[in-house]
Amino acid sequence: MMQQSCGFIRSLFSRYRGDLEETLRAESSTVVELDGFPAKTAPLTLYPGKKVTPESGFAFEVQESLGEGGMGTVYLARQDQLMRDVAIKRLHSSQQQAAVQAALVGEATLLARLDHPHIPPIHMFGYDDDGLPLLVMKRIEGVSWKALVSDQEHPFWDNLPRDRFAWHLRSFLQLCHAVEYAHSKRVLHRDIKTENVMIGAHGELYLIDWGVAKEFNSPSGVEASQFAGTPRYAAPEMFSGDRVLSPATDVYLLGATLTEVLLGRAKHGGSNLQEVISEALISEPTEFPPEIHPELAAICNRATHKESEYRYQDVRSLIDAIEEHLENRDALDSLQSAEEVRKRLVAEFEKAQFNERIVMRLAFESRFAFEEVLRKKPNTAEAKKGLLDTMGVMVRFEAAKKNTVHAHGYLEEMRGLGAGRLVLEELEATIDRAQSKKQQAEELATQIQYKLMEQVLKKS
Fold first, then answer.
1. Other CB atoms within 10 Å distance of the CB of residue 256
2. What is the pLDDT, as a whole number, of residue 69?
3. CATH number at residue 375
4. Mean pLDDT in the chain?
5. Which of 139, 171, 199 is the last residue of a domain?
6. Residue 224 lies in a domain
7. Distance between CA atoms of 292 and 284, rounded to whole angstroms?
8. 289 within domain boundaries
9. Which of 84, 111, 212, 425 is a Cys-bridge partner for 122, taking CB atoms 3.0 to 4.6 Å apart?
10. Closest by alpha carbon to 369, among 7, 361, 67, 75?
């Protein structure tokens, strides 16, 4: 097995052309049968600026190149009958190998089976004048997620929410939903990365480049005889010719993608392919800075665990973990706001001459905010403490006003919430002192009243 794995990596070195961010396509990355596909008729002559009219009646006007890769070129074209722009993916004229053509046909096969909002649809499949297959696909106007991660000043950010961190996480959930759907159709993407995620003009997300996707027919996954994907993101098993690729492999790629989103760099470092592969094979847990919540860091490191059995076993489990973190994050944001209100309440109450109306308003806002946190996440200890502290201020506030009945009411609520014995005893003593002073004041007032009455009677 070790020899097979070493040969597998040697094959990868032989096909490597120098770009560590490049998608490497194995010749057998996508195996399909050509039977059942359109015959090589109705050619589409693809020359920029010329109108193309195949026998089927569809007309396209190819306008410009949108991008070029190792396999072919993607053109922008205008479909006259439907008055829409489309993207046409065509192989280079030099790509005459049957396996390379089969890869593009395989991409068409898989895309035709995948009907999901975050997966761009394929409109047509055909052949050009050179007899090479081509795809007519949805044209996506936008930028790659990688461009947004790399450039914090990108003008596209002007159209996106201000809370970029939350936006990234919610975008990641959309990506996960696309991959989860593909897995339900028994398709592994194998090349998930920020570069292969497009963000549309209105924030819509698309997972693109299904050129190395592979179908698996058994729950355990599928064997891959050669590497296909991007080394900087790849799971360890992708470099081993004797291991099975499974949905857990795509889970790793999703975790590596989220790692890049959070840190601004790819999962696997290294200045050359050998260093990148070494990091991938070891797959040590990533060290995250303090500003990344430990819970989110743990999610990334579990998704990219070296051993596939210790990762999330399906994308749904990863989705659940991220959604729970977002709920916790919302609760933490609410907790921070509640704590700020509580501090303002304490500061106002501790003034020598506090404003009763301000104290009552801040107390209401603070109590409501902490109760909202506990509604979202009932076992949040900090929120419970903040709520008890707020009510403790109200006990002292009512006691200061000699409203001992109200003070006792807050004290009983605190007792029901499980306030500590010492805290309750201290507040009870505060109420007792207030009650004693109230009684003394009432007795003094009574004495003064009697003396006044005596004086009135004497004069009469």
1. 27
2. 64
3. 1.25.40
4. 83
5. 139
6. no
7. 18
8. no
9. 111
10. 361
* Rounded Cα gap, residues 319 and 258, in angstroms: 12
**Has residue 71 got a pLDDT over 80?**
no
With contact defined as beta carbons under 8 Å apart, do 145 and 171 qualify? yes
Residue bearing tokens 């290294």: 270
214 falls within a domain:
no
The answer, yes or no, to whether residue 2 has pLDDT greater than 70, is no
* Residue where one domain finishes, among candidates 139, 164, 189: 139
Q: For residue 17, what pLDDT is reported? A: 60
Structure-token pair, residue 274:
């050998």
pLDDT tens string 253-308:
999 999 999 999 999 988 888 899 999 999 999 999 988 988 999 999 999 999 99
Residue 317 has pLDDT above 90, yes or no: yes
The CATH number of the domain holding residue 32 is 3.30.200.20
Residue 74 lies in a domain: yes
Q: Domain count of the chain?
A: 2
- Distance separating alpha carbons of residues 116 and 93, to the nearest angstrom: 32
Q: Give the model's confidence band at 449: pLDDT under 50 very low, under 70 low, under 90 confident, else very high.
A: confident
> Three-class SS string for the chain?
CHHHHHHHHHHHHHHCCCCCCCCECCCCCCCCCCCCCCCCCCCECCCCCCEECCCCCCCEEEEEEEEECCCEEEEEEEECCCCEEEEEEEECCCCCCHHHHHHHHHHHHHHHHCCCCCCCCEEEEEEECCCCEEEEEECCCEEEHHHHHHCCCCHHHHHCCCCHHHHHHHHHHHHHHHHHHHHHCCEECCCCCHHHEEEECCCCEEECCCCCCEECCECCEEECCCCCECCCCCCHHHHCCCCEECHHHHHHHHHHHHHHHHHCCCCCCCCCHHHHHHHHHHCCCCCCCCCCCHHHHHHHHHHCCCCHHHCCCCHHHHHHHHHHHHHHHHHHHHHHHHHHHHHHHHHHHCCCCCCHHHHHHHHHHHHHHHHHHHHHCCCCHHHHHHHHHHHHHHHHHHHHCCCHHHHHHHHHHHHHCCCCHHHHHHHHHHHHHHHHHHHHHHHHHHHHHHHHHHHHHHHC
N- to C-terminal Cα separation, the chain: 120
Instruction: Please provide the size of the chain in residues.
Output: 460
Give the per-residue pLDDT at 93: 64
